[in-house]
Structure formats: structure tokens, C-alpha cells
Design goal:
This protein is α+β, with helices and mostly antiparallel strands. It has 16 helices and 15 strands.
């Protein structure tokens, strides 16, 4: 097992920083949108990115991610529809916005005990600011709306968010949710903020989120998706202030240089120094764990991939570009950690954690985030991997006839995805394969006309998560649950989870009685073995499955 401070051919005294500084810069591609090569048709960066350390150029990159960038063809029906969606969202979000209020910026967000009221207020401001910044929306460039937005930011900084205010409820809202939305609003409104207001914004964000390695009020080590979220907050704040040193800290935090790689988000958790960390993140079999032992590819895993793709885009071609050789592991994340768990636009519910209880995250919505992330990653992996990702994206978009990706995604992703679709690289074709994820006790079986997902747990894995008053009835989610995916692509959407009998999930043995809300959550089994076997051979490999000896035995 390789020491984190060395690589083959290096001496024991070589530091991880030396290794990272000397590694090939996989992330040195230009910002979105993409262009196509005439020779191969592969989607790639418009041109080799000139190294830029100009804060204005980096702000433009982030602005492009939020708005789609300049030169949008507003006569194009798909572009026009996306612009219309932005305008409609802003019309909804601006309702009730009143900086003259004393109890809350919005009449339905007045709580001083629920921190998500703070985050939602900032998200609404960012949504409206996006419409203000995108040509073609009813709100574009509106001076009265501009003044209302600025007054709204002032209200939040004066009454809710900053060093003068005591945080309450959930740390995530203060350090991640609110900070991300406020950063985005600041980038969108940068030219009209003024020096004093910009200083208040960046100081407030830095008050809650000063370090890409640490989070929570008691400054715990940030891991997995939380580390990438925190790093994104620090990075955009650094772009707003022009602080290159913080961008260097973000680059190093992704590899956990300070911790000698123990909580690197790029390394596999069952390899090298990462095996000494908390265990949160990706494993070499494609499993992803968050909150210590919860399978979460379709929840925190997709958010990690999404925000990391945005960070790589932001830092590409700069002196802070990510050069860790473990960046190459992302190929495995996509091939083993996401592709087998996607079924024609749906993400298998067994790896979505408590997100299955959220109305906004039903069925096919999570897959959209995965596709957007992989589209952004294509420029960072030129050559064979870019072709592989291109073929996957084309397949994923084409096979989801339930929810049209191009009709729901953001502007930047729409522009980039259409260029990917137009490339000469063929779509992968339907997946016919069997994939087991032993580290999280899950299996996915894909045949030409159906797919099957099996969910168990063991001494290694928790059965289900129910926190923040969510997912209260997921008692049997890992008790051998078997989900069958057919041509009815919306079966697990359209409020399946709030209406299915949680005591009679398919594949599980029914037992009498109804447990209390959240009963037994965050529980492991006494069994070490909860899996099965795959007989090697052709793509039609046969499988055998045996469930863990849990309180409720599998009958599937």
C-alpha cells in the first residue's frame, strides 16, 4: 500500500505537496461552454486555456456557469425556453420580497429558529439575480429590481447573516447553503454592489466559512461532499476578493494536504492514506458513503461530483489548477459509481438516502445533477475518457423519455450538452451488465428490457438515515428491498415514496406492527456478509444473491 507522501519512484522523504505540484494538470481545460473538434467530433475545451490569475476572468467563469455566458441565441427554441424558465422562477421567487419588513425579508421566511429560512431567503435572491443577469428574461437589467435586490442583501446582512448574528439550528445552512447562494448573488450583481457592500458580503461569508478543511461551529474536519461544498464557498469568496492564497488552500483541501491525504475527496477510501480517514467518500468498487456509513451515491455523492466539476472548471488553467494524480479516480466514479446506478434517467433509490423523502428530489431529478456534472468534466479529461463520458451523456439523455434533460437543465449545461450530443462520438447504448457494490451492500442488474436493484446492509453499513425530520418511515429500505425498473419510467417518481406502504416494500418480509418514526435508523447488522456472487462470463452474467441476517429477512 503506497504511502500518501510518496509515489512509485519517489523517495520516502518526498512530500505530498511536491507530488501534487509536479503531477500532470488534468484540470487545465478552458471554461464552459464547449466546442467541437473537427477531426473527431469530441466535445472539448474551446482552446487550450491560457493560464489566468485575473480575478475578473475567474468571476466571468463563475458568471458563465450561472447564466450560460454571452452570445446566447435567444431565437433558438431550447435556449428561449431555458431563459423563460429562469424568468418564471424569478417571478415566483420575488413574490413577497420586502426590505421594509422587520420580521423577515419574505413573509413566509420569518423564523429565527429554523436556519433553512436564511438559506431559502438567499436562494430566492440568487434566483432573482440570475434572471436580472440573463438577457431575454423579463427581469433583465431592470433597475428597480436591481435596487430591490441590493436592499434585500442589505436586509439579510443587517438582520440575519454575519459576525453580528448568532447562528442557530443547522450548521449546513450557515456555512454552505446560505454562503453558496450569497456568493452566487454577489457574482451576478458584482458590478453594482459597490465596495462597501461587497466587503460586507465577503466578510460575512468568511465569518462562517473561513477554512476549506474545517466546518461546523466546533471546527470539525470536513469530509466527502461537505468538504467540496465548503471548498466551493471559499473558492468563490476568494474570487470575489481576489485572494489567491485562499484558492491555493482550496486546491490543497480537495487532496487534504494538511491531513496528509486522510480525508482527500479525490482518493478512494480503501486505498493509501484515505483508509485512515473517516471513510466518507468514494471506494474503488464505486460505493459512496456519507455520514460515516450511509450509502449515498444518489445524494451526497452526486453533489460532490457536481460541485467538484464546477471547481475544476473555475480553477482550470490557473496556478491553482488541481494536479493531484488521484483526480484520475473520477473516471472510476462515473463508470462504477454512477452509470450502474442510473436506470433510464432514474437513480436507484437505495443509494439516495433521505433524499427520497424530498418532493424536489423525486426519481429522475437526481440524474439531472449527475449528467450536468459529467458534461462539465469532459474538458478536464481529454482523449479516450472524454469520448467515454461523451458516449455516456448521449445515452443518458436519449434514454430518459420520461423527463427531457434538455428541457429542465440550466443554461450553461444546455449549451454544453447540445454540443456533446452533436459530436460524432456514438452513444454508449443500453447498459447490459451486473454490478455489485460490496462496500455498501447494494447490487444493480441491467438487462435489455429491465433493471433490478437490491438493497441490503451489514456490519459495515447503516440501514437507513432519518435526520432533520426526514425519511421517517424508511425502516426496511435495506432489508433486502428489490426494486424493478421497467418501461414505466415514472414508476418511482410521482410521489411513489410518500404513498407506498413502508412496511411492505418489495423483496422484504412483512412483519406485524408499525415502528415509531425513525425507529432503528443508523443501525448496522450483525452480519459481515450481505452480498452475493457474480459468475464471470459474458455480459449476461448470472448472479446469486443472499441477504444479510437482519431482523427482517429478504424473500427476494
Amino acid at each position: 500500500m503506497t504511502n500518501p507522501g510518496t509515489t512509485p519512484g519517489t523517495t520516502q522523504g518526498t512530500t505530498r505537496r511536491t507530488v501534487l505540484a509536479g503531477a500532470a494538470a488534468l484540470g487545465a481545460a478552458a471554461a464552459l461552454p464547449l466546442a467541437l473538434t473537427a477531426a473527431t467530433g469530441t466535445a472539448h475545451a474551446t482552446s487550450p486555456a491560457a493560464v489566468t490569475d485575473d480575478p475578473a476572468a475567474l468571476r466571468t467563469r463563475w458568471h458563465t456557469l450561472l447564466t450560460g455566458g454571452p452570445g446566447l441565441d435567444l431565437t433558438d427554441p431550447q435556449i428561449a425556453a431555458a431563459v423563460a424558465r429562469i424568468g418564471k422562477a424569478a417571478t415566483t421567487s420575488v413574490k413577497g420580497l420586502d426590505p421594509a419588513r422587520t420580521d423577515g425579508l419574505f413573509p413566509d421566511l420569518t423564523s429565527t429558529t429554523l436556519s433553512n429560512h436564511v438559506t431559502t431567503s438567499f436562494k430566492r435572491l440568487a434566483t432573482v439575480a440570475t434572471a436580472w443577469a440573463v438577457p431575454g428574461t423579463p427581469q433583465y437589467g431592470d433597475t428597480a429590481l436591481r435596487d430591490l435586490l441590493l436592499a434585500g442583501l442589505d436586509w439579510m446582512l443587517t438582520n440575519r447573516y454575519g459576525a453580528d448574528h448568532t447562528r442557530f439550528d443547522n450548521d449546513w445552512d450557515w456555512e454552505i447553503g446560505s454562503a453558496l447562494a450569497l456568493n452566487d448573488a454577489a457574482v451576478l450583481l458584482y458590478d453594482v454592489l459597490g465596495t462597501e457592500r461587497l466587503g460586507r458580503i465577503t466578510t460575512a461569508v468568511r465569518h462562517y466559512t473561513p477554512d476549506p478543511n474545517l466546518w461546523r461551529a466546533d471546527r470539525q474536519i470536513a469530509t466527502g461532499a461537505n468538504r467540496v461544498w465548503i471548498s466551493t464557498v471559499v473558492a468563490v469568496n476568494a474570487v470575489l476578493t481576489g485572494t489567491g492564497g485562499d484558492l491555493a488552500r482550496v486546491r490543497d483541501a480537495l487532496s487534504d494536504v494538511e491531513g496528509s491525504g486522510a480525508n482527500s475527496v479525490l482518493a478512494f477510501n480503501d486505498a493509501s492514506a484515505a483508509a485512515e480517514g473517516t471513510g466518507e467518500g468514494f471506494y474503488s468498487d464505486g460505493s459512496f458513503l456519507q455520514h460515516y456509513k450511509h450509502p449515498y451515491n444518489g445524494g451526497y455523492g452526486k453533489e460532490l461530483l457536481n460541485n467538484l466539476s464546477r471547481l475544476l472548471n473555475l480553477l482550470a488553467g490557473t496556478e491553482w489548477a488541481v494536479t493531484d494524480p488521484d483526480l484520475d479516480n473520477i473516471r472510476g466514479w462515473v463508470d462504477d459509481g454512477f452509470d450502474p446506478l442510473l436506470v433510464r434517467g432514474d437513480v436507484m433509490a437505495s443509494v439516495c438516502g433521505r433524499e427520497i423523502a424530498r418532493p424536489s428530489k423525486q426519481g429522475h431529478v437526481s440524474a439531472q445533477t449527475v449528467i450536468e456534472a459529467v458534461v462539465r468534466l469532459i474538458p478536464s479529461f481529454p482523449g479516450e475518457t472524454a469520448d467515454r463520458f461523451t458516449s455516456l451523456v448521449k445515452q443518458w439523455i436519449a434514454e430518459d423519455t420520461y423527463r427531457d434533460f434538455l428541457a429542465v437543465t440550466d443554461l450553461a449545461s444546455l449549451v454544453a450538452a447540445r454540443q456533446v450530443i452533436a459530436s460524432a462520438v456514438p452513444a454508449r447504448g443500453p447498459l447490459v451488465a451486473h454490478k455489485q457494490h460490496p462496500r455498501m451492500d447494494k447490487a444493480a442488474h441491467h438487462r435489455p428490457s429491465f433493471a433490478l436493484g437490491i438493497s441490503a446492509y451489514s456490519s459495515r453499513i447503516y440501514n437507513y438515515e432519518s435526520i432533520q425530520n426526514e425519511n421517517l418511515h424508511a425502516w426496511h429500505l435495506s432489508d433486502g428491498m428489490v426494486l424493478l425498473y421497467t418501461d414505466d419510467l415514472g414508476h418511482y417518481s410521482e410521489d411513489y415514496w410518500p404513498t407506498v406502504d413502508p412496511a411492505r416494500l418489495p423483496g422484504t418480509t412483512v412483519i406485524a406492527g408499525r415502528p415509531a418514526d425513525a425507529a432503528g435508523q443508523r443501525t448496522t447488522s450483525t452480519a459481515d456478509w450481505a452480498g452475493g456472487t457474480a459468475l464471470p462470463g459474458t455480459r449476461s452474467a448470472r448472479t446469486a444473491w443472499s441477504c444479510a441476517r437482519t431482523a427482517v429477512r429478504c424473500t427476494g
